[in-house]
Amino acid sequence: MRDIVFTRRSGWIPQVIREDGELKLMLGAGADVNHDPRTFTFGIGEAHLAVIREELARHLLLWSAVVPLCDAAGTRGPLDEDAAVALLDPILLSAPADVDATFQRIRWARGPLISHGADIDLLERGQVCAAMRPATETSDAKRTQKYHADRRRAERGQILGILDTALLMYTGQYLHGATIPKRLPDAVDPTLLPEVMRVIATAEQACAGLRIGRDPRRGKRGTDKRDWERMAATVEAAVRRAHPGLVDDAVQTVSFLMCSEAVDRTRSAPMDDDEEAVGDSAESGGSARKTSLSFTDDRNAEKKWLRSHPRTATAEFWEFVGDRYAGNNEVFTVEDEAMGEGLQFHFYADSIARITTARKGEGGSDPEYRVEYSLVDGTGGYRKLLSAFVRGGCAALDEHGSWMSDAADLERARRRRDAAE
C-alpha cells in the first residue's frame, strides 16, 4: 500500500511516500521503451523527511542530484538505490559548504534548479546553496530552455549582446533556431524595438526586387534552393555591413526571416505568376510564339499543350514536371513537332540541350538533328530558357547561355562549375 506523506505544488518535484511502512522518495524521470515516464523510489529516513518539508532548496538540490542516476537506468534498468541513498546525508544534513563540495564531485542536473528560479551565475560558480535562495515551488520551463539555448550558443562561440537577443526574440528563434521565423514585435523590449526595426529595414532594402521562385523538382510547393541561398547571402552581407557588431546567429535569423517570407509569397501566388520571364519582344522572337507543344519525360509519359488552353505553356510544363519528377525520372523534353525543334532538360546535371532539325527525313531516311548544350543556373535559368523557347523557338535562345555542340565540352564545363562552387 502506498500513501503520500509530503508533496509540493509542482507535480514534478519528488514526493515523499510511505510504502509498506517505509518512507521513500518517489520521482518521475526518464522514459521507458514506450516513451512513458518512468517512476523511481528509494528509501529515506525521518530526519531526511524533516529537511525536505522545511527546506525547498535542499529538496530541489536532492532532486537535481538524483536525476542523473535515473537517466543512467535507461528505459528499463533499475535505479542504483545505494548511490541515491548515499546522496541523502551529504545534501540534506550537511553544512552549506559541504553541500557545495559534494556538488563539485557528482553529476547533477541544472535544469530542475534553473526552472525553479536558481541564480544561474552562482550555479555556474559552484555555489549551489547560495544559488537556491531565490528558488520557488513553481517552475518556469522557458527559463531552462533559455539557459540551454545560451549554453549551445556559447559552445559555438556565440555570446549574445542586447541587440542580438532582441533580434532573436523578434523572430521567435531565441529558444529554437530551427523554428520558422515570424515577426513578433511584442516579444521585444519596447526600448529596443526601434533598433531592431532598423536592422530589419536594412534586410528588406537589401532583398528588394529579389525573389525565390518555384522548383517543381522539390514538389508542387517546392522552391528554388539557389534563389534562397542568393537572397540569404545578399541579406547577410548587407546587415553585416550596416550593423557589424551583430553575432552570426542574429544576422542569420534576419536572413532566415526574409527568405521565409519570400517563400510564403511564392507559394501563395498562382503558378502562372512566376513564369514568362522573358519579355514578348522582337528580340525574343515574339512573332514565332508557339501554338502547340508536347511535353515528355524519361518514362514515356506525354502531355499536349495548345495555345487555346486556359493556362500558359510554361505553367503547364512545370506542373507536368512537378507531377512526374523523381530520382529516376530527371530528363524532360518540350517539343514543337511542327517546327522540328525542342528543349531537353537535364535536371540531374543543371544542364539543357536544344535540338533542331538540320535535315528532314526523306525517302525513308532518318532526319538529322543538331544538338547543342548549355549549363543552367538553377530553376531560374530553366525558366528563362523555357519562356524564351515558348515565345521564339530555339532561335530565341542564342542570347541565353553559352551553347556547345560537343557533349564532352559540356561535361568539362560542368566539372569546372562544380569545382568552383
Oligomer kind:
single chain
Strands in their spatial order, largest beta sheet:
6-5-7-8-9-10
Backbone shape = elongated
How does the helix and strand content classify structurally?
alpha+beta
Order of helices and strands: EEEEHHHHHHHHHHHHHEEHEEEEHH
Q: Largest sheet at a glance?
A: 6 strands, antiparallel
Number of helices: 16
**Strand residue content:** 15-25%
Average predicted local confidence, pLDDT: 90
* Helicity, as a percent range: 40-55%
Rg for CA atoms: 33 Å
CA-CA gap between termini: 69 Å
Poorly predicted runs: 273-287
Number of strands: 10
Could you name the key traits of this structure?
16 helices; 10 strands; 421 residues; 16% strand; six-stranded antiparallel β-sheet; single chain; four-stranded antiparallel β-sheet; elongated; alpha+beta
Structure description:
The chain is an alpha+beta fold. It has 16 helices and ten strands. The strands form two sheets. It has a six-stranded antiparallel β-sheet with strand order 6-5-7-8-9-10. It has a four-stranded antiparallel β-sheet with strand order 1-2-3-4. Helix 10 packs parallel to helix 13. The chain is elongated, with a radius of gyration of 33 Å.
